Every structure is written in C-alpha cells, then in structure tokens.
C-alpha cells in the first residue's frame, strides 16, 4: 500500500511539472487568463 501511494504522489508531481512547463511556453502568447489558470 505504501509503494502505490508513493507512486501516485510521484505521478502527481511529474504531471504538475509538465503542466507548469507547458504554461511557461505559453507565456509568449500574452494570454493573461491562460497564464493565471496555469498556476491555480
């Protein structure tokens, strides 16, 4: 049970990092609403 919980946590962190990485690329588009939604 502990290992599966740890795996879920790692997956969640990985998805967050990828999501923020995509948001950083989108900053060039000057869409403030999109940028704000990235960090919510």
Please give a quick description of this structure.
With 40 residues, the chain is mainly α. The protein contains 2 helices and no strands.
Description of the molecule:
The chain is mainly alpha-helical and 40 residues long. The protein is 82% helix and 0% strand. The chain has helices at residues 2-26, 32-39. Helix 1 (2-26) packs antiparallel against helix 2 (32-39). The longest helix is centred in the middle third of the chain and has 25 residues, at 2-26. The mean pLDDT is 72.
Note the overall shape: rod-shaped
Structural class: mainly alpha
Percent strand equals: under 5%
How would you state the average pLDDT, rounded? 72
> What string, H for helix and E for strand, traces the elements in order?
HH
Query: Which consecutive residue ranges, at least 5 long each, have pLDDT under 50?
Result: none
Task: Report Rg.
Answer: 14 Å
Largest sheet: none
What is the overall number of helices?
2
What level of helicity do the residues show?
over 70%
Question: Whole-Å distance between the termini?
Answer: 30 Å
User: Got a strand count?
Assistant: 0
């Amino acid at each position: 049970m502990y290992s599966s919980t740890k795996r879920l946590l790692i997956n969640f962190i990985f998805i967050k990092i990828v999501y923020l990485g995509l948001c950083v690329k989108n900053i060039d588009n000057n869409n403030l609403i999109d940028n704000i939604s990235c960090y919510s």
